[in-house]
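Quick one from the shared queue. A colleague (R.T.) flagged adenosylhomocysteine nucleosidase as missing a structural entry in our internal table.

Convert sequence to structure tokens.
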Amino acid sequence: MNRIGIIGAMEEEVAMLKEQMKDVTVKEKAAMEFFHGTLNKKEVVVVRSGIGKVNAGICVQILADDYQVDAVINTGIAGSLKAEINIGDIVLSTDTMYHDMDATEFGYPIGQVPRMDVHAFPADETLRKLAKTACEKVNPEISVFEGRVVSGDQFVADKALKNQIIERTNGWCTEMEGTAVGQAAHLNKIPYLIIRAISDKADDSAQVDYPTFERQAILHSVKLVEELLLML
Ligand code: ADE
């Protein structure tokens, strides 16, 4: 893996990574700034995609077409869907699945884009194992989980909705980009990993917890990515 694309949905999620890059050239496309250079001696392209599935999908396609990246890492925050996954903890994707794609009327399982080959997009196992080791080294005070990351164009802050998503997807955390990254990576045959630090519990407390814990959660995923790059 020579050249790694690193996507964060929000500026806060990529700002610290960009600050530490060397030999940077910046190009703009689709209202996104692509920072191409090195980070911890590894060639990277760091970019803020913007929020939501379409922005994330477009971003991966540009990384594939214009930069021929060998892997895509999507770092950021998410709401927990499991009682044992606490605020500040990390979830590494085993796979990704949409919670808001519903063509069950035509016999497709929840999450499956009609006429596609899979209902969940498998993430890269090698990247995941390395990321786990990196996380245990730099974030020893928190727990790191490996499980399904689910996505939809919805900030989940309601217990009933949260329970419905859990029942439909068996997801471990919910956010708004990871599956679009997974789908675009799958279509382009590029290995990918979603790294999510938990900022809230995706229930009625999410509105309060999210702004309180956003910074701490972002710090955990940034530290993990920096360490992971040393291993690739
Ligand atoms: N990102 C962080 N928390 C989230 C939530 N509860 N729902 C969707 N995206 C999120």
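The chain has a mean pLDDT of 96.
The helical segments are 11-19, 53-67, 125-138, 159-169, 178-188, 206-231.
Added to the table.
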